[in-house]
Amino acid sequence: MSLLPEVDLSSDEQKVSYGFGLQFGDQLRRNHFEGMELEAVLAGIQHQFLHQQALLTNEEINPSFQVIQERQKAAAAELANKRAALSEQFMQANAARDEVSTTASGLQYEVLEASGGDSSPGPEDVVVVHYHGTFADGSVFDSSVERGQPAEFGVNQVIAGWTEALQMMSVGDKWRIACPPQLAYGEQGAPGAIPPNTALVFEVHLIAIKS
C-alpha cells in the first residue's frame, strides 16, 4: 500500500482546501473504474484550476469515456446474470425442502412458530415486527433483532414478498420467508444495500397490528 502524502493542515485555509479534496476524492471513489489513474486525475485538476492548456479536448475524451461506460455496463450485466442464476438455484433448492411452501407468486415460507391466533393484518394496516434479513449465503444485510428494536411499517409499504407474507400470518407467528428477486428489489436492487437480481431470506416475527 502506497504511503499517503504528508501535508500541513494547521491553517483554516489548508483545512478547507483539504476538505474540498476529501469531497472530490469521495466522488472519485464512487465513480471508480478499473484502470483509473490518479496521476492523470491530478493532472486534469491542475490544468483546469491553473488555466493551463488541456492536453485533450472534449471531443478526444468522449469516445474513451463511452468505451469505459460500455465496459462497465457489460460487466454489470454479466454480474447481474450470475446473481440471477444463483438466486434461482437457491430458490429451487429451498422449495425442495419439506418444511417449505410456495405460493403462486413464487414466495416461499416456512412456519417456525405458530401462535394459533386468527388476527391477520390487511394491506392498509401498520404492523410491529422483528425481522432478521440475510442473503442466500447467510450473510446478514439488515436485522431489527440485532438492533434490539422492533420495526413498524405499513403492510403495503414494503417489498412485495413481505406484503404477501404478512397478510397470511397471524399475530405471534414467526416465519422464515424466501423472496425471489421479483418479490424483493428486482433488477434494480437497492443501491448500497441489495445487489440486483438477489433473492432475500427473512425470519419474520409478527408482534402486533397497530391499525
UniProtKB/TrEMBL annotation:
Protein keywords: Coiled coil, Isomerase, Rotamase, Signal
Homology family: Belongs to the FKBP-type PPIase family.
Domain PPIase FKBP-type span(s) in chain numbering: 124-210
EC number: 5.2.1.8
Catalysed reactions, as listed in the record: [protein]-peptidylproline (omega=180) = [protein]-peptidylproline (omega=0)
Gene Ontology biological process terms from the UniProt entry: protein folding
Organism encoding this protein: Sediminihaliea albiluteola
Pfam families reported in the protein's UniProt record: FKBP_C, FKBP_N
PANTHER family xref list: FKBP-TYPE 22 KDA PEPTIDYL-PROLYL CIS-TRANS ISOMERASE, FKBP-TYPE PEPTIDYL-PROLYL CIS-TRANS ISOMERASE FKPA
Gene Ontology MF terms in the entry: peptidyl-prolyl cis-trans isomerase activity
Coiled-coil region(s): 69-96
Leading EC class: isomerase
Protein name, as recorded: Peptidyl-prolyl cis-trans isomerase
InterPro entries assigned: PPIase_dom_sf, PPIase_FKBP_dom, PPIase_FKBP_N, PPIase_FKBP_N_sf
